[in-house]
Every structure is written in structure tokens, then in C-alpha cells.
Automatic annotation (TrEMBL):
Keywords: DNA-binding, Transcription, Transcription regulation. It comes from Marivita hallyeonensis. Residues 20-75 form the HTH deoR-type domain. PROSITE patterns: HTH_DEOR_1, HTH_DEOR_2. Coiled coil: none annotated. PANTHER family: AGA OPERON TRANSCRIPTIONAL REPRESSOR-RELATED (PTHR30363:SF44), HTH-TYPE TRANSCRIPTIONAL REGULATOR SRLR-RELATED (PTHR30363). This is Transcriptional regulator, DeoR family. The keyword Transcription applies. The keyword Transcription applies. GO terms for molecular function: DNA binding; DNA-binding transcription factor activity.
Length: 272
């Protein structure tokens, strides 16, 4: 049995050494097939040293794409956050109001990064309705499909497809984003607290962080139910934001923290 296992590893050994980003992409693919991988096995497969593999795993863990474990790595746990198709059905009117107001801040000729999520899908619908002639870079398939039939030019990021979110993440996604500087980014999030923006869905926090770095003006679209809670992974600090679009005014500590960070708060009021 041991000989057969060694033969399987040898048969899967990569024929030539891969570049760092491709090797890390292959590691993520491996974790889609099995819950845990060992450094020794990966080092054998990619024909690199264990130290090189440790650096790969540390880098992927820093981007919240894997869980680091002794001697290897595991696929990240996603927690109990509901998938996109469930979130789309909830708080529809609130998200529509937020998106409609946020869409008014985007002007013809601008470049915009939009991440994945139920509220940013509503933003895409609002931009398409207004026929804004902007250039959009996104990791979300629904956002790309919504805007791709209208006046916007759409650039879809490459990466590892996450079916539950209908979006891509991973090292290829982040490398793609780093090639661009945009006028504004419009992101959603799982949670917002005095500590900052956070994500429950692992891997998407890294995309949000990169978008915040690449934009001149940074906006967060989030409904008030997510105030005062903290997700699993940090996606950014409050002082990285320029404006918050929401459906209700934050209270007490969060409001004070946003004011201290000089974040403009735009509340999408319900129709009377």
C-alpha cells in the first residue's frame, strides 16, 4: 500500500518547476479536492524545498485563503454565513435603497472596482438602470453579467470560482487587481464594527483589502443589521473608507469611530 501511494505521488509530480503564483494556484486547487495537504507531499509534487512550500502556505494563509495547520494546510472553513442566493432574498428594500443612493455617486467616465455580494449586485442593477458609462473591474459574475449588457465596460477578474458566492478569489484575482488604479471602489461586507470592516466568508476579505488599496475614493455599502458585529477576517480599517452608504444611522460607539475616521455617512432614507 505504501509503495502504491508513493507511485501516485510520483505520477502527480509536476514535470517542470512552476512560477510562484501558479504553484500557489495549484495548492488552492488541491485543497478543493481534499481537506488537508502536507508540506512534504507538496514539496515532492512541485519539486521545491519544504521551506519554499512553507512560504507559499504562509502567504496564502495571510490572504485568508487557507487555514495553516501543523505540517501543512487545510481548506478554510466558511462559518455559518448564508450563501449568496439566500442573502439576496433578505432585506431587499434596504439593499435597493442603499444601492440607488450609492449609484448616484458614480459618474460617466469613471473607473470603478466592485466586489461580490448581495448589495453590490443591487448596485450593478442601479448603475445599469442609470446607463452610467463607466469602466468596472469586478470579481463577481452577477455584477459582470448585469453591467455587461449596458453602457459600462466590464473587466472580470480571473481566479478560483466560488459557487456559493458566484465570484472568484485567490492569488490570480489579487495579482489582476494590482495592475490597476481606479477612481473609486464600492465594496460590501459581512460586518462593520469599531475595529473596522470584516468578512465571514473566507478569502473575500483579501479581495476587499486590495480594492481599497487601488482606489482613490473608497465606499462601503452595508445594511444596518451588520453594525456592531465582527466577522472572521479583517477586510480594512475605518480610516481606509471615505464614505459609508447604509439604510440607518449607526449608533453610539460605531458612529463616534466613523466620525473620528472622517468617514462620510450617507443614509438611504425609506420613502415616506
Amino acid at each position: 500500500m505504501q509503495d502504491r501511494s508513493m507511485l501516485n505521488i510520483a505520477a502527480r509530480k509536476v514535470g517542470k518547476k512552476l512560477k510562484k503564483q501558479e504553484r500557489r494556484r495549484q495548492i488552492l486547487l488541491e485543497l478543493k479536492l481534499r481537506p488537508h495537504v502536507r508540506i512534504s507531499t507538496l514539496a515532492e509534487r512541485f519539486d521545491v524545498s519544504p521551506e519554499t512550500l512553507r512560504r507559499d502556505l504562509d502567504a496564502l494563509a495571510a490572504e485568508n485563503l487557507i487555514d495553516r495547520a501543523h505540517g501543512g494546510a487545510s481548506a478554510p472553513s466558511q462559518g455559518l454565513y448564508p450563501p449568496l442566493n439566500e442573502r439576496i432574498a433578505g432585506r431587499v428594500h434596504e439593499r435597493e435603497r442603499i444601492a440607488a443612493v450609492a449609484a448616484q455617486s458614480v459618474h460617466d467616465g469613471e473607473t470603478v472596482m466592485i466586489d461580490s455580494g448581495s448589495t453590490t449586485i443591487e448596485l450593478a442593477k442601479a448603475l445599469a438602470f442609470r446607463s452610467v458609462t463607466c469602466t468596472v473591474i469586478t470579481n463577481s459574475l452577477p455584477v459582470a453579467m448585469t453591467l455587461g449588457h449596458g453602457a459600462a465596460d466590464v473587466m472580470l477578474c480571473p481566479g478560483e470560482y466560488q459557487s456559493a458566492e458566484s465570484a472568484v478569489i485567490g492569488t490570480e484575482t489579487l495579482e489582476f487587481l494590482r495592475n490597476y488604479h481606479v477612481d473609486r471602489c464600492m465594496i460590501g461586507a459581512s460586518a462593520l464594527s469599531e475595529e473596522g470592516i470584516s468578512e465571514t466568508v473566507r478569502g473575500f476579505a483579501a479581495v476587499k483589502r486590495e480594492m481599497l488599496r487601488r482606489a482613490a475614493t473608497c465606499a462601503l455599502l452595508i445594511d444596518s443589521e451588520k453594525f456592531g458585529i465582527t466577522g472572521l477576517a479583517s477586510a480594512g480599517k475605518l480610516d481606509e473608507l471615505d464614505v459609508l452608504f447604509t439604510d440607518a444611522r449607526p449608533r453610539t460607539g460605531l458612529l463616534a469611530a466613523l466620525r473620528a475616521a472622517q468617514v462620510d455617512i450617507v443614509v438611504a432614507e425609506a420613502a415616506s
